[in-house]
Specification:
The complex is a heterodimer of chains A (256) and B (241).
Chain A: E1 27-31, E2 39-45, E3 48-59, E4 72-79, H1 94-110, E5 119-129, H2 134-148, E6 158-165, E7 168-171, H3 175-180, E8 183-190, E9 195-199, E10 202-203, H4 207-237
Parallel strand pairs in A: 4-5
Antiparallel strand pairs in A: 1-2, 2-3, 3-5, 6-7, 6-8, 8-9, 8-10
Chain B: E1 10-11, E2 22-23, E3 27-30, E4 33-36, E5 40-45, E6 48-53, E7 65-73, E8 77-81, E9 88-91, E10 113-121, E11 127-130, E12 137-139, E13 143-146, H1 152-156, H2 161-170, E14 173-176, E15 181-185, H3 188-203, H4 210-222
Parallel strand pairs in B: 2-6, 9-11
Antiparallel strand pairs in B: 1-5, 3-4, 5-6, 7-8, 7-10, 8-9, 10-11, 10-12, 13-15, 14-15
Helix pairs in contact in B: 2-3, 2-4, 3-4
Classes of the chains: A alpha+beta (256), B alpha+beta (241).
């Protein structure tokens, strides 16, 4: 990492795509985009396009993998063959298996898994277009899709990365910054309690730089959290106009 | 119905429910504060604050009448899919016939649809269902469509106004299972019309005065008039009962 023949930050302190050091790429989220899935969401984050679908809780197969005390969260991270300029060889590889595992563990923390013994909650994260930061974007949409699926959770997870380019700590690395920068720290935050459920680091940071990076990323996660909520509100608030919240009549629905 | 009012604002998982009440369904308590655990709306019942889920799979609860399909059978039980997180168990003792051991298949076969009632859900979330009550039976004709379980109250309507109107105009026998499965039986035209109307309800669930819209749709399609009867007005929810 770190080549000196490329300037990632110009004289004005602006980055390659014109962002400030503490600025996120534009993010838009839409909830409930798939009809067949129990819950779904789509995120457009910079040049990343990621779809998440949730199925379950449902009976787990194979049966020997069931946990009699709780639900098993199975997140699958997959990149489409056309998601990167060079064709991505389809199928699971070392990297996507790892990301699937850490995202499963991150989501497992917020879901009330003990409410659904013996079952599974499947989360499919499909990367349609990738441009750095897909695990963070994936975790962010997956949380929205889980809410959309009506899964009981203690909170949503907002996720974002911070890193170091040209010796400066910056927020949300883009493709070139990721490739030619010095460090990348993706985090997954539970905004209600400020707890972390995902923390990785690629590259080196001093203790001070790490503190700065965490502060940047955590602040950004709170902003992303708002966008997640807005997406869900937009999806559901219209459904609410003039809806009836009576106890459902059991009588009177019998055929006449 | 309780006289405490319900709110219509959407609550998201992890959001504080600031009412000073006991945590009910769809909520959890941390450090003395009640939070929502599901996406839904607040409802208040006898000192408890609940979150009524607005999405997701069917959450089975005792006493619900539901429509299931048989996914598996063995000499003494049928396994029934309810679109719930777990399959339900229908035991030979809980059907209206005397079934000899090993003779389950000749009564209800794989893939058959049944109208059943949930008799028990235990802590392990094992669901037991029964069919030995009036009105419960195997469904031999007609068709079944699915809607999100959260929209079941819409299709039934206030005091069953929507569903009785659908039956009146289409001449069909209709049963709405609490798990979002709807059974429709009758002549083909009526069935087609009922399906179309229910799809309309699903799509326009948020529209004001939905009952009237559906009624005029049905009138137009069937040419029938039932104006002389008193109409079940879709009263705005602000006027509590």
């Amino acid at each position: 990492m770190g080549s000196k023949d490329m300037d990632l930050i110009d004289e004005d302190g602006k980055r390659l795509d014109g962002r400030e050091y503490d600025e996120l790429r534009p993010i838009s989220i839409e909830a409930g985009v798939l009809k067949r899935a129990d819950g779904s969401a789509f995120i457009n984050w910079g040049k990343n396009k990621i779809m998440a679908a949730v199925y379950g809780p449902r009976e787990m197969h194979p049966r020997h993998a069931q946990d009699p005390s709780k639900a098993v969260v199975q997140a699958r991270y997959n990149m489409a063959a056309f998601s990167v300029p060079d064709r991505k060889r389809p199928g699971p590889d070392r990297r996507s298996v790892e990301i699937g595992k850490i995202l499963s563990e991150a989501l497992d923390e917020i879901i009330f898994v003990e409410q659904y013994p013996r079952s599974t909650i499947d989360v499919f994260i499909e990367v349609l277009e990738a441009s750095a930061g897909t695990r963070c974007a994936g975790l962010t949409v997956a949380s929205v899709a889980l809410s959309d699926a009506g899964i009981p959770m203690s909170d949503m997870i907002a996720s974002c990365a911070a890193g170091k380019i040209d010796g400066q700590v910056v927020l949300d690395l883009g493709k070139n910054e990721d490739n030619y920068g010095q460090a990348d720290v993706p985090i997954g935050l539970v905004p209600r309690t400020d707890e972390l459920t995902l923390l990785q680091m690629d590259g080196d940071l001093t203790e001070e730089e790490y503190e700065q990076a965490m502060e940047l990323a955590m602040d950004a996660c709170h902003d992303i959290y708002k966008k997640q909520k807005d997406a869900l509100r937009e999806r559901y608030s219209t459904d609410l106009e003039e809806q009836e919240f009576e106890e459902i009549p059991q009588e009177g629905i019998e055929e006449g | 119905m309780s006289d405490e009012k319900d709110e219509r604002e959407i609550i998201l998982p992890g959001e504080a429910v600031d009412e000073d009440m006991k945590p009910g369904r769809g909520t959890f308590k941390r450090d003395g504060q009640v939070y929502a655990s599901k996406l839904g709306v607040k409802t208040f019942r006898s000192g408890y604050v609940n979150i009524a889920a607005q999405s997701g799979r069917y959450d089975p609860s005792e006493g619900d009448k539901v429509i299931g399909t048989i996914t598996d059978l063995n000499p003494s039980v049928w396994m029934v899919d309810l679109n719930a997180p777990f399959p339900a168990v229908l035991h030979v003792n809980d059907v209206p016939w005397r079934v000899e051991y090993g003779d389950t298949r000749s009564y209800i076969d794989l893939g058959d649809a049944v109208l059943i009632k949930i008799s028990n859900v235990d802590e392990q979330k094992k669901i037991q269902v029964k069919m030995d009550e009036e009105g419960l039976r195997k469904l031999n004709s007609g068709q079944i469509i699915e809607i999100p379980p959260s929209q079941v109250p819409r299709v039934i309507g206030r005091n069953g106004s929507m569903i009785s109107m659908l039956k009146k105009y289409t001449g069909c026998r209709i049963f709405v299972g609490q798990n979002g499965r709807i059974w429709i039986d009758g002549n083909l035209e009526g069935q087609y019309l009922a399906v179309k109307a229910i799809q309309m309800i699903e799509k326009k669930a948020q529209v004001m005065g939905l009952t009237d819209i559906i009624e005029s749709f049905l009138k137009e399609e069937t040419g029938k008039e039932f104006d002389d009867e008193e109409k079940d007005e879709d009263t705005p929810p602000e006027e509590d009962e």
